[in-house]
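INTERNAL AUDIT FORM
Audit reference: QA-55
Scope: verify that the stored structure record matches its stored sequence.
Auditor: D.O.
Record contents follow.
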Amino acid sequence: MENHHNPHPSLTQLIRWAARILGVVNIAFIILFVVGEGFDYKLITHTELILFVFFPVGISIGMILSWWKEGVGGSITVGSLVMFYVIHFATRGMFPTGWWFLVFAIPGFLFLVCRYRTPKVEHVAD
C-alpha cells in the first residue's frame, strides 16, 4: 500500500496552527495583564463585571475550546466579542475605542475559517 501523505501542510492546517499559537499568546497576555494589574472585584461595577465575563473570560474560554471543537470554540470567541461590543454600546452609548479587542478575537475568526474549510466526516454504522 502506498503512503499518500503530503509532506506540506495544507492551508487549513496553517490557519489552525496560527490560530492556536495566537490563542495561547493572547490568553497568556490576558493572564499577565489581569495578574499584573490585579483584579479587585469590589472596585468594579456590575456593568464592568458583565463586560469582563465576555472579554476576556468568554473569549479565552472559546479559544481553549477551539482546540477540540473549532466551530463551537470559535463561535463562543466571536460571540463573546460581539456581546462585549453590544453591552458596551448599550451601557455607555459608544463602542469601545481601540483595535486591540478585535486583535484578541482573531484566533476565534481563524478557528471558524478552519471549521468551515474542514469537510464533515460521516460515520457509517458497521
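Auditor finding: record pair retrieved intact. The helical segments are 11-37, 46-65, 70-92, 100-117.
Action required: none
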